[in-house]
Each structure stands twice: as C-alpha cells, then as structure tokens.
Design a protein that fits this description.
The chain is an alpha/beta fold. Helices cover 37% and strands 22% of the residues. The protein has a nine-stranded mixed β-sheet, sandwiched between helices. A six-stranded parallel β-sheet has the order 3-2-1-4-5-6, with helices on both faces. Helix 1 links the parallel strand 1 and strand 2. 41% of the residues are buried. Bound molecules: 6-O-phosphono-beta-D-glucopyranose. The site of 6-O-phosphono-beta-D-glucopyranose has 5 residues, from loops.
Amino acid sequence: MDATTFVLFGATGDLAKRKIYPAMYNLFVDGKLPQAFSVFGLGRRELTDEKFRANVEHSIRTFSRRQPADGSSLNAFLEAFRYSVLDIGRIEDYNKLLQLVEQREAALGADPNRLFYLSVGPEFFETIASNIQASGLSSAAGWKRLVIEKPFGHDLQSARNLNKHLSRSFTEDEIFRIDHYLGKPMVQKLEILQQSNPVLQALWTNRHIANVQITANETVGVEERAGYYDHVGAVRDMFQNHMLQLLMMLAIHLPNHNSTSDEVRTKKKKVMEALEPLFKEDVAFNVVRGQYAAGEIQGKAVAGYTSEPGIAADSANDTFIAAKLQIDDYFWRGVPFYIRTGKRMKEKSTRIVIEFKEPLKQSSQKNDERRIPNLLVFEISPNESITLQLSTRDPQHRGEFKPMFIDFRSDSHEVPEAYENLIGDALNGDPTFFAHWDEVELSWKWVQPILDAFTENLVPLQTYAAGTYGPAASDELLARDGYRWQFDA
Ligand code: BG6
C-alpha cells in the first residue's frame, strides 16, 4: 500500500476518539495500514505528542473491538502519531504543518501521499479545504484525498454551494464522502450477495417482491446534541443520507461479475433518478412526521423531546419520519418502498425486510386461512444476520401455518466496524462505498419538497410515546396498501 500521511483535523474530538482511532488500530492489527504511515493529529488545544499518544491509547482501550495483547504492538502503532496545534483559520499554522509533514516524509523516505480527514463541523470544510490548497499541503507530487463526514449541506442549495467550494481545491475523484452506513459490513454484503447468487438476481424484481421495508430505529434520544439536532431533525440527520443510501444499495441491479466502483455508483445514481419525485402537496399523504413524547424504554421513564435540555418547549422538530417511495423503472415499478427512522423507539434495530408476493393468493386461499408471507430479512445492526422466513404447517395443529427460519448469523467480534472498512478503502483509494456528489445532490433534490412541506407546516406533527414504534400514522401508511411493518412486536 502507498506510503501515506494521514492529516486529521479534529483529533481531540468525539468521533476521533470513539471511531477513528479504534478503526485505525484494527487496520494496523490486520496489517492493512501502509508500512510508511504517519498521523498528524490537529486541534486547537495544546498537547504534547506523548499526551496525544496517551489519549489515542485510552481511546483504543475503551472503544476498540480488539484489545492490544501486548504493549509492543500498541507502541509500534502509536509511534506513527504526532500532534500539532492548528487554528483552522490561520494560514501560518498550515505552513508550519507543511514543514513538519515534509520533514517526517523525508525521514521515512516516503512518497508524499496525503489523506486529509475532516472530523470537524461542516461549517469548517470550506476554510480547511482552501487553506490546505493555499499552504501547498496538497501540491506534493503524490496523491491527495479529502475525507469528509456528513452532513453535506443543510438543503439542496447549501449542498451545491458546499460542493462548489470544495471542488476548487479537490476533484470529485479526490473527495471521499463518508456515510458510515455504507461502511456497515451487511450493507456491503448486499452488493456481493446479489452478484453471486442467481436465485436472488431472479427474485429481485416486481414480479416476486410485494414491498420493501427499511427501518433504522434507535432507543437513544437527542442526547447532548440539541444544538445540532433541533435544526436538522430525522429527515436531514438520517433520512436524506443513511436511509436513501440503504435504498440505493438494495435496489441496484448489478451485472454478474465483480463490479467496478464506477459501475456501482452509476447504478446507484440510476436508482435515484428513477425515484418518483414527491411534490410538496403530496408530502402529507406519503410522509409521516413524528416527535417523541415522554414514555418508557426498557423499564426506564424518559422525557419527551420538548422537555430535553436545550430544546424549546414549542419545537416542531421531527425525531421520526416514515415515507413511502416508488422507483419507476423496469425492475421496481409498482413495489412500494417503506422507510422509517426514529429516536426513542422501542428497540435499536436497523434492518431491511423484503416481503414476497403470494402469487396464488386469490385462487387458493380461503378467507379464514392466515398465511405467513415469505420474507428475506437483512439485520444490519446491532446484530448482523440474514434470515429467510418460509412458512410451514404445525404438525401439532394441522392446518395452522407457522414461520420457519433459515438463518445466517455473524459473530459480532469478528465483524469489522464501519469505520475500519471506510478508512481502509480511503487509504486504498477505493471510492465504491463513499457517496458520490451525484447521489448526494439527487438525494437532496428528492428530499427538498419534504423540507419545504415541513417548514410550511403542511404535514401534521404526530407525537408518539417514547418506547413505541412511532405514531399510528406510520402503521396506516402501510395498512392503506394492505401491509404492516414486519417484526413490530
Ligand atoms: C448518525 C446520526 O449519522 O447516525 C445519529 O447523526 C445517529 O443521530 C447515528 O444516532 C446512528 O448510527 P448507528 O450506526 O448507531 O445506527
């Protein structure tokens, strides 16, 4: 792998601590970091290299899925880390950083390939990108890459502005936009499973599939992020990015060979282009907007959203969204995709359920016969599994159908974290599981009428008790079409 200098903005932040350092450590243990590898952690706070390394070690001991067996391998890993104080707006600090980076690269005899990881608020992206360029940090002979985290904009217009600014310093091929749902191993498996199983390829159409249900429920509430969350809501925080990415990954049809990243991203773009647009006037019929009220989660009483610290008592922010979407193409025409995501739900669960049609239903089924639909279920987190639900008759009670499950489960300790996959791919320059600008733009475009309808109050805000599956209107969205959310207890 190419020698790499990893320049991390926001090195003392929460994401670095919880996700980035543990991911790097696991890549190191698996021999997936370059031989010549340096990390320059940057932050506003003064820190010595020793203190910085102690912080990185603490993060690994607290959050890594694998723990260091002995001190020496950990020390070898920490040896790569250095720290510099940097004020994001001060070009002098970037000039100083460039000298340090060049010295280190010369000492390692390494080519100057540089990855700039912006683990900071999006309001700083433009300043950092242009200072990287102005200081010459990005003009070395090797490659350069920019890794940024969502949110990419606040709406269609701001996303376009942001992209315009970033593209003055980095080309599209050099920008790696992290949507951590694309790093989840089960989401990545969706592509491989479809490509390598003719039976799935044959089934993946409106001839056999009745509907698709995509759920990302969380038990946590707004936590300490009131300032951020109250301005974005579930629609921007989860729906515009993670949920639409899940939809794209599920709905793409890939050729029967190992696809290139270009093929995958082009097919995803096609899915977004085929998504039937929603007009502002139709949002209320197809989208449910919810907000949690007080309730109980796993035996513990929790406050309602508007009683959370930092949230105004009259906030109309959405903490839940459910929507019905349709893809108007040859494969999916007529198959509803139901998507929902919410905070303070009954359980933490991200899953995709594919419900198959019952071709013989009308002709053979007696009215009182309760058949169980065939389902293919991808559990994405917290546990990973794939289950095929078939139907059989209970020998004890002849005539009664009961579900039979064919199961595949992963051992969660063996499964890499999303960030391991993504950082490894960014180091390798593989953009397959990063969001291309076209996808981001099309997602905002699709979501914009929902944002407008929410702002203009065209969609009623439904409250739901914490610890439930969301507002009743979410069940009605499916019931209207003769379906129900599968696996809601
Ligand atoms: C983040 C959102 O992108 O994803 C959070 O900002 C949310 O609000 C989180 O809690 C959920 O991620 P996961 O991996 O726990 O499902």
